[in-house]
Amino acid sequence: MSNFCIFSSFFVNNSQYVYKKNIITFLYCYLLSKPIIQEVDSFVRTLNAKNTEFWNNKRIEHLRELALTGRSAYLWEDHSDSFRILDRLAFSDIDSLESNKKFLSCRDDLSLINEISSSVTLAYGRIGLSAPLYLGDMSFGALSGIPNIALARASDITGVIAGTGEGGLNSDVAKCKRITVRWASARFGVDIDVLKTGLGIVIKIGQGAKPGIGGHLPGPKVTKLISKARRIPIGKDAVSPAPHHDIYSIEDLGQRIWALKEATGKPVFVKVGCTNYVPYIASGIASMGADGIIIDGAGAGTGAAPAVVRDNVGLPIDLAVSWVDRILTQQNLRQGFSIIAAGTVSNAEDTAKLLALGADSVSIGTATLVGLGCLMVHKCHIGFCPALLTNKMTDNPTKILSLSKSVEWTSNLIYGWIEEFKWILKELNLKSASELVGRRDLLRGYNMNDETGAILGVKIDNSVKTLIGKSPSHSFVEDDDYWTNILQSELRELSGSAGRSPGEAVITSMGSISAPLVDTPRSICDWLRVDGAQVTRPSIDPYREEIETSSYLVSGKIRLSSPIFFGRLSEQGVIRDIFSEVAYSLGLLFDSENLLSKNNIFTHSLIIDHSEFTNNLNSNISAITINYDEIDSLERLIDKNIPVFIRLPSKEKTIDHVKSILDYNISGFIIDWDMDNDETTIDLAIITSEIDKLLRNTKIDIFPARSKFNLLVEGSRVRGAADIFKLIGLGADAVGISKSALISLSYDPDKSDKFDRDKAHEKLEYFILGLQKELKLLAGAAGISSIQNSLTGNRELFRSLDLDPEIRQRLDIKPGGAP
Amino acid sequence: MNKFKIVSKDDCGVFAVLRKKNSNKISSSIAINGIECVRFRGSKYGAGFACFNLDNGFTNDYYLQVFVADKNIANEIKNILQDSNIIIKQENLRNISAIQLPLSYNLIISADNSLHLAKTIHDINSKFSQPEYSARVYSSGNYLEVYKDIGYPLDVAKSTGLIINNSNGTISKLKNIFGYRQKEKMGDLWLAHTRQPTNSPGSSAIWSHPFSFFNTAIVHNGDISSFGANINFLNSRGIPNLVGTDSEVVSFIIDYLVRVMKLSMEEIGLILSNPYDRFLYRMGKDKSKKIRDLLYKYQGSQLDGPFTILAGYSDGEDVYLLSIIDRSKFRPIVIGEDQNYIYMASEECQIRLLSPNSIIWTPEPGKFVLASMNHGIIESGRTSEIIVNSASKNELIQIQKITHSSKNMINAVDLSSYELNRQIKIKLSDNEKSISLLNVRGQRYLGVDLPKGTKLHVYGTPGNCLANFNKGTEICVYGSAEDNVADTMYEGKIIIHGDSRDVIGYALQGGKIFVKGNVGNRAFILMREYEESRPVVIVGGRADDYFGEYMAGGLAMVLGIDSIDSVNEEQLVGNFLATGMLRGSIYIRGKINSDSIGLKPPIQDIIRYLEYLNSKGIITDVLFKKISSSSDINLEILKELLPENAFYFIKKLFLSKYSVKLSIEYRKLNDFDRKIIEPNLKEFVSCFNLSSEIHNKILNSHYTIISSIDKSKELQSPTVNVIEE
Question: How much is the pTM?
C-alpha cells in the first residue's frame, strides 16, 4: 500500500485536489514496479513547481470521468491560469459559469441534444465520422499493443477514426475497419497489402512534439515482438530518418501521394508538425492532391523526443489553424479538403474552438491515453510504464492491460466527449458540427496582443484581465525560479551526473512543459520558437548526417569546435583549471580574465583581460578583452598582433558605445549579461540582435562591419543549447555559458572536499558534447547543415509567440502563425 | 462526393544548354523542348527562359526588362531613367498573361557604369514595391534576355513572344513546336525553368524564374534554408530590395560576387556549394586554406538546404554555365555532353530527347559543375576521372530500336504517366504476362502494384518511383532509371542496364536489384532482411554518398567494373558509407578510406584532443606526430596506438548511444563470402552478358567488407519487474 501513499499525497499536496475516483489509481499502484517508484518520485518533485505540466490534474480528472462514465461531465473548464493561446480564447456569447450551471441542471435530459449532429466528413466526403475526432497516430511499439487495439476497436464502436502509427499493423488492429495506415520515413511494417487496409493512408512527415526529427523507438523497447513487426534487430534504437528520403520538396510529396494513390486508390492524408510555413505547406499539400492535412501542434504527445526539440521547435496548433483555413479558402483549395488539428487537444471545448478557428476535425492522442490511465510520468521511452500503456512488449508479459476494459474506457471517453461537444453546439445555437467550422467570429481573445488576434482572425477583448498572458518585461525572473528543477536535471543529464547516457541529448516523452506554452517564460529566448524543416525542405538527421558546429572567429584564425565558450566564472581554483583544460581539449575558448596559474599549459584556449596580458606579454593566449571604458589601453597593444575584444554590458547604451568604436582596430565585442548588472541591464537577446543589425548596416570600406567584427555574447543566465541556438540566430558568433556548466557538474563549492577533479573534467567534456548534440538536433530540425554559415543572424528560422510587438520588432522576428 | 482521379503532378524542372565554341548557336526551340519535356514537374504558376547571346547587338548597351502594372508606370520609369542620365535607345511595351503586372516594358539603354545603373535599378524596384508591386526590373544585362511569365513553359514561350503562333493559332503538341516560329531566337546559352511554387503565390510573373541581375541569370529547384542569412548578406552589401523568394537571392549573390567582388566562377562555385569543413583537408593545406578564407570572407552567402541551381553568366568574352548542388544533393540534376552542346537538366529524359547519344553523368553531392562556351567542361562535379556511364554506350540505344510484336508492346511516346499505367493494366487484364514499353520518357510509377509474375521491359528512361512497393514483378530497364526505384520493394527483380539516380532501394525488404551502371545518393538506405527474405543488390559502377545508411540486412555490392583494370585505384563510393548500419553486409571493390565510412567527428577536433593529451603528457610527442600526420585517423587506429587511458578519454568524441560498431576489413573474398556472393554474381554477369574474364576479375579482387558487429542477437528479451502486493 505504500505506493498508493505516494500518489495520494501527491494529488492532495499538489492543488487541494481530491481525487474522486481513485479506482484507476489503485490499479496502477498495484502494478507499480520498483524502478518506477523512483521515477514517480522525481516526477512528483518536479510537479511541485507551478505551471510545469499542461496535463494537470484538472484535465486528467475530467478525462477519467468521461472514460469511467461515458457521459458528459462539464462543458467549460477554468484554465484562466494557462499560458496556452487556446485557453485565452472564449466563445464571446457564452458566460461559462452560467452555462456550466445550466448544463449540470439538465445534462441527463439527452433529448435536448438529440437533434444536434456531431458528424463530419473528411477526404472530399469519402470518409464519414460520427464526430470530429481522429484518434492520434501512436505506433505499435510506442504503445504496448493493447492500447493500439483498444483505440482501433473503440473507433469502430463509436464511428470515429483511429490512426495506427508507424510500427506496422498488428493483426488485431488490422481487423478493425475505421483505421488509417501510416507511411513513414522508415517504412516500418508496410507493404502493399498493409497500404490497402483501412480507410486511408497517412504520410507522416512530422509530428508536433518534434518537427524535423524522426520517429524514435528506444532500444530497450525493441523486443522480439517489435523486431518482428518492424524487421529490425532486437535491442537497437529504431530511429526513423528525420526526413523521407524520397520527399525533399512539396513536389516530391506530390509524387509520393500519387504513387500511393496509383497503388491503392485510397485517400491520402499528410501529417505535418506545425511550423513557420504551415499555411503554405498546407496549400502545397492540398494542391498536390492529398485529401487532408493533419497539423500536429507543439506540445503534442510523443513516446520519445529530445527535450530540447520538444520544448523549442514548432508552433502551437491554435496559431496555425486559422491561417491554414484562410489561405486554402483564398486559393480555392478548401472545399472538401480536410484540416485535422492536433496537439494538446484536451476536451470538447478545445475541439469546438479549433473547429471555430477553421479545422474540420481534431486529433486526440494523449487525451485517450489519459483516459486509459496515463499519469504523465514522462518516461515512455524507458519502457516501464506504470499504467502499462507504453511499457515494452515481451513474449510473456507478467501484467498486461485488460483489453476489454481499455476498449470500454476509450469508447466511453469518446461518447462522453461527443455528448459534451453536442451540448457546446447547443449552447452556440448550432445544429451541426460542420456549421461551426471557420466561425472565428464567435470567438474572442482575452489578454493577448492585437497581432496575435489578427493571426487568429478573432477580435480581442482586453477589458477583462483575468488571464495571465503578460507581455515579457525586461526585468529578470528571480534566480531561484530561473533555474527550475527540470532544467537543472536536464543539464546534469547531459554531463552524466544524473546517471543516464552522458554526452547525449536528453530524451523525454509525453506531455508538454515548455515556456511560453505551459511554463512561465523566463527570458526573451523563451518566447522564440525554432522552425522545423519539413515538406518544402528536408530536415537533416544528426544521427546520420553531417551538421557542422565548428565556427571560425577572427578572420579564421580561431576555430571553435562548437560556437560555445566558457564565460567568466566567479569560482576560483581547481574548477577554473578544469574549465581551461576542457576548453582546450574540445577546441573551445574560456573567457577566464587571467592566466589562472603559472603552470597552466592550456593558455591557448584562454581569453584574458588586457591588464593581465601586459603583465605576461609572452603568454600564448587566444585573445584579450578590454572594457569599453578602458579603451585607451588599446593603443599600447596595437603592435602585439593579438585579437582584442571590447567588453560591454547588456544595456541600451551599449549600442551607442559599439557605434563609437567601429573604426578601432579590434576583432569584435563581448557582450556580458552579468557585467555591471543593475536595473538598466536588459535581456541579452535584444542587445545581441541590435548589435548584429548595427554591424550589418554599417560599412567599413566596401565591406559591412559584420564581416570584420565578431560578436561574442555571454552570461550566467544562458541556460543551454536552446539559448545558444537562439542567440546565434539573433546574430551572435559564439555564446558563453558559465552557471549552467557548473550546475551540470553538480558542483557545490561548499562541499569541495568531496570534489573529484577527474570526474568533473570528464563530466564537463560530456556536458559540452551533449550541448553540441542538442545544437545539431536543433539545426537539423530547422534544416540547416552548417551553424556558422546558415544560422548566424538567420531570423527567418524563428517565430515569436504572442511576444510584445515592440520587442518582437527589435528582434526582427516574425510572429508565429502568420503566413 | 468527389470523383477520384489520378492526374500527373510534380516538381520544379530546370534545364540549360550551352554551345561549345565551334558549334552553331542554339535555337529557342531546343530550350523549349528541353523544359516542356518535363512539363509534369511544373505547374501553371510560372515558367521562363534566359537567353545569353554574345552577338545580340546589346554588347555596349543594356537590355532592360521591367514588369509594369500599366502604361503610366512605364512612363514614370522612363522619366526616372532619363533623370539618372541613362539614355534610352529603344523601347516597347507588350502584354503578358500574368494577372498582376500584366505588361513587360523592354528597353535598350546605355549607361556609363554598372554601379550607377545598379543603384537606379534598386531605386526603381524599391519605389514601385510599396504598397504592392507596380513595377519590377527583372533583367538588366548586356548579353542576356529573359522571357518569363505565369503558365507552363509553352504558354510562356507564347506569351513572351519567344515563339510565334501559326496562322490558325493552335499550339498543342510539343513535337510541333519547331514549326511555329518563323525566325527562331538563337543563343549561346539557354536556361529554362518550370515552376511549382512552394512559398509564394503564382499570380505575378515577378516570382517566375529565371531571376536575373546584370549578366547573371539563375534557375533554381529547391528551398533554401539559409535564406535569412543570405538576405542579411545581401542587405549588408547594399542590395536591399528583394521580391522575397529564396531563389532570387542566388542571382543577386552571384552577381555581387562576380561583378562587384570580381571573383572567378570557380571561386563562386566553391563558395556557394559550401564544402564540408571536415573534408577540406583532403585538398591539401594550401587549397583548403584558400577555400576557408573565401568562405569566411563571404560568410552568409553560402547556400544551405535542398537546391539545384543552374546559373548563367557572361563577361562579354565567354559564356559560363554553373550548376551548384547542395551538400546532400537533395534535388535531382544530370549533366550531359555531346559534340556540340553541354546540357544540364532535372531529368535524363530531357537530355535524351534532344541528344540520344550524349554522355550523361550525375555530379557528386556538394560539388559544382562549371562549363564555358570557350573551354567546355571545366569542372565535371565528380572527383573520378571516369564519368562515362554504361547507359550512354551505343549498345543501349541499339536495343531501343529493336522492334517488338505489337501484341505485348506499348509505345509510350506522348503518353502521360497515368495513361501509360492504365494501358499496362489493360494489357495485363488481357492475360499478358510480359509487356514491353517503348520510348519511355520520364513516365512515373511504372510497375507499381502489378500482379506477381509480371515482366516489364522498359526501353528508354522511366521516371521516378519505378517499381515502388513491388511484390514479385520483374522489371528490366534498357536505359537509365531515375530517382526512387524500388521503394519498399518486398519481392521481385529489377535489372537496370544504365544508371539509376538517387535513393534506389529505400527500405528494400526482399528481391534483387542489379544495376549495370552507377547509382546516386542514398542507395539502399534502410534496406532490411527478415527470416528467409534477404535482399541482394549489385551495382556494376559506383555509388555516391550515404550508401547503405542504416542498413538492417541483406547483401550490397559495388563493383566498379569500368575501372577494374585501372592502375590508379579510385574509391568507388562517396562519403558517409554505412552510417548506422545494423545488419547485413556491404562489399565495395577496392580500398575505402575509413573517413568515408559512417559519421565521424571532424578531424580537427580529433587532432585538438590529441594535442591536449600530448600537452598533459598522456601521450608522447612522437606518438602525437605519428597519429596526427596519418591520413586516416579512425577509432581502430587510435585503439591500437594509444595507451589505454588516452583511448578511454578520446573515444568519447566518437561514441554515441546511436553509433554502431562496424567491422571493416580489406581483403580478398574468402570461401564464406564466395558462398553468398557467387550465385548472385553469376546471375548479375549473365543479365548483362559480361565476359567470364570480368567475372573472374570481380571474384579475385580485393574488397572493403563492412558488416555490423551485432551483439543484439545474444540479448535476452528483457522482463518487467512487478511488485506483488
Answer: 0.92
